[in-house]
Design a protein that fits this description.
The structure is a homotrimer of 353-residue chains. Chain A is of the alpha+beta class and 353 residues long. Helix content of chain A is 22%, strand content 30%. In chain A, strands 1, 2, 3, 4, 5, 6, 7, 8, 9, 10, 11, 12 and 13 form a 13-stranded antiparallel β-sheet that branches. The longest helix of chain A has 16 residues, at 65-80.
Chain lengths: 353, 353, 353
């Protein structure tokens, strides 16, 4: 019996500035486009109507940025989070170039922070991951931090290197993908009349649609992203965990919430940045996910009359009624400690003015 | 808290001759082709073998007409049936032009009938929906009627405008898609020797194959069609309904039955029209679906020696044995009141002579 | 009520040298590529990264050979195994030419052996099946034997024609697909440093990853392959079987095991032959599948410095712990009688030297 099976890195295996080249580049296919719609119910216009994408300047139908994120994220799992106790957070995720069917993604990560926990058993690893296409153009990059096991529990050695993390992605014209313009935008395309001008800072929207997660749904999605973390797939092992069930990949919850927000934010056509995010509670098959959003800020770009940006926080909930969600959205302190709140996602959308 | 989330139209929101432009055009991809096979088990030849499709005159592999129907139908749901109590029926569905991967579908509807119910709480809305491709060519059109809630229950005001609905799609050469011919048809392609000449009017066929519906199967299918009716997805809400379970989208039952009929009707190569249809009972995950058909009529087209038409009714059943289905097929009155009968579909197939 | 529904062949319907032309050629799409990843979690490099496939000499991204096998196998089910009691074994499966999205597969079989069982109720049918692409080039061929019901139980008539089955596919340069070379291979592509030289004959590898099968997973996979054997789909019928549940298609277990072996065999880039295989126990939804392998042999090809071959046996297990698998792998007699062992697969991989 030999040790060819990769066991993933432990806290002691990481060092500051370490570069990781993640395995298995992945070509995106038109099958991914359809599967993403089937898995999430996404109806976002620029990722399902090629005629509209072309009327907005793209040569072809761009892949949903969250699909791109999940595939790129999946590449980092074997090296970064196979031994993760928890995915603690995301920041500074920027989608810098659109991706189309036929493009191939490769991902690398750099260790940017390390912090031991006082229990001597775990530590936090901060990484900056970059996904590039086959032309070596960066298509998405992000920072995340995960708690991982130590190989050998031991008294902390004083490792305490926490990186600076910007609280949001800087807003400038680089957030607009090349070619994209809304000069010809028609509300008929989405059957939704709410443009940037109609949203108010502080406004709260309950998106109301509920989506129940089936075991195959999240298994299929997570396998599609080639994310092989055992907690999502191995029921024999997870039946001995506290919950007794497989965990749903947190990114699947992000996608469900983004799909649900279509009702109320149909013209939030391009997800251009994720300023920060956290999974506040785990989700399991059988849970029904809901979403509500609060508008944080909005604005215009210099010399662009067609397009503006909307920054918002979307919260994901599970198994609660519309009224309870409304109440929680009014009380931020309650919201973040609610066991029914599963996601907090701070992100920036491009929207027709 | 604001009201940007679209709540769907109620009975009072509709008026005769109203035009509705449904949101989110949808580009069909080759991913849809594979997913449709995976979701339904369809084996219909012209939709899975490009070499054969080309030998029959098409330039490329055409999309299954039921897949086209579901995607087009899904577009109408947010406007027509988000508040539907029940989908009462379909009529005059005609597939007028084949669709290929890469084509983009847009859908509009016109209100053609309105009838209040005597209970003062609901009414029936009749619509004529038309799906076009990116060249503005009609690809499928149909009429349907749904029972929708009133916003405010009130005594009926006498609205009673029921449209004329033809009992069947007119049979003429327009039912044959441009380019399609069976001049070179070979029974080896389907391994089925039954051509049009072998079917008798009045003949009953029990297709025997059973297909059990899993929760993910119908959820994936209905999301793929971007049909967002809550009854199909929200278990938290549906646990308070009479059945306590999510309803399976009726169109998924149509597709399962069409796939099951391959055994006995493998040479019914092109579904060209749905004369009428009704969902007689609801289906739920866990149900096993069976199908049996009765041949209603058949005939030839002028100047076409290669191709003829077969009109038939296929009934969908759930959770019963072959013998019980045979008995029900012999007794039409019992059939339509059986709780195990879930679908009645009257349609026309093109078949090699 | 008429008999147009094909009931499949029984033992008496087969004769030596009989040729069967299986129905429904099937065009492979890029949707199949993505679905296969979603269904199995496969991460094998040459089937998901087009840039790498091209760097290894292919013009485009080749389809996973097991996906090709399942689709080709599915074509044979209506004729060969619709009345099968059990799929007894496979041998001499050779992948002779790569397949790409857009190619169309047609399948024929020849009966090469027949043996009655002494119970008078069943017999064993041996077939040699060949799948060709649209250019009439053989892409995969294999032999298999299945136990099928007799139409009419009767005393054995002495039919006892057992074919010679080679114990392995002959190793020569024909096992290397045209165009394929590993001259430029980089371990960064897979993030795995183990090349052919690092594997020892007799070495045992426990691949450790577990994959729980959901009902939709195996239903979707088996429908995608257009394999319509009733035991996989009809819960109403199977609730009266001994297990009370639908059987998982054995090929799905093969694919899960191959996907799981990525951890430890990531550079086993091309599955070129299956020397033999057997499903030792049935699998059901809810089972968690694991895999372990033993290296049987390895070697080089004449005049090829880039590429070598590795012959191994992979065993599939269900619902047991890592340590128990390790123990079973050390005791071949225990292994093959274990109720937890579901698959034995003897196959040959191409690997960079």
């Amino acid at each position: 019996l030999t040790e060819k099976t990769f066991q993933g890195y432990f806290f002691e295996d990481f060092e500051i500035n370490q570069q990781l080249i993640h395995g298995t580049p992945r070509t995106i296919t038109s099958g991914d486009i359809s599967l993403y719609i089937a898995l999430t119910g996404s109806q976002h216009l620029l990722n399902c109507a090629e005629t509209v994408a072309q009327a907005c300047g793209f040569k072809r139908l761009p892949i949903d940025n969250l699909l791109l994120f999940h595939i790129a994220f999946g590449k980092t799992v074997p090296d970064i989070s196979l031994n993760a106790v928890a995915n603690l957070g995301y920041a500074n995720c920027r989608f810098s170039s659109p991706i189309f069917a036929g493009d191939t993604i490769s991902v690398t990560s750099k260790v940017i922070g390390l912090k031991e926990n006082s229990n001597g058993k775990t530590g936090i690893v901060y990484v900056h991951s970059i996904a590039k296409n086959q032309h070596d153009t960066t298509v998405v990059e992000w920072k995340r931090w995960v708690m991982v096991h130590k190989k050998t529990p031991s008294a902390p050695m004083g490792i305490d290197h926490i990186p600076d993390l910007e609280s949001s992605v800087t807003i400038n014209q680089n957030l607009i993908p090349d070619d994209l313009n809304f000069d010809n935008f028609s509300s008929d395309w989405t059957a939704c009349k709410h443009r940037l001008t109609h949203y108010q800072v502080g406004e709260i929207i309950n998106h109301r649609q509920g989506m129940t997660i089936n075991d195959s749904d999240h298994s299929l999605a997570t396998r599609l992203y080639q994310n092989n973390a055992r907690v999502h797939f191995d029921q024999h092992m997870m039946s001995q965990s506290a919950a007794g069930k497989r965990l749903v990949y947190g990114g699947h919850i992000m996608s469900l919430c983004r799909a649900i927000t279509h009702s109320g934010l149909a013209n939030g056509l391009w997800l251009t940045a994720i300023n920060g995010g956290a999974h506040l509670n785990p989700s399991f098959a059988g849970d029904t996910v809901y979403a509500a959003s609060i508008i944080l800020d909005k604005g215009h770009f210099d010399n662009r009359e067609d397009i503006g940006w909307l920054r918002l926080k979307t919260y994901g909930f599970k198994n609660i009624d519309e009224e309870t969600i409304n109440e929680l959205m009014m009380e931020p302190e309650q919201l973040r400690i609610s066991k029914q709140c599963v996601l907090e996602l701070d992100y920036t959308l491009l929207m027709p003015n």
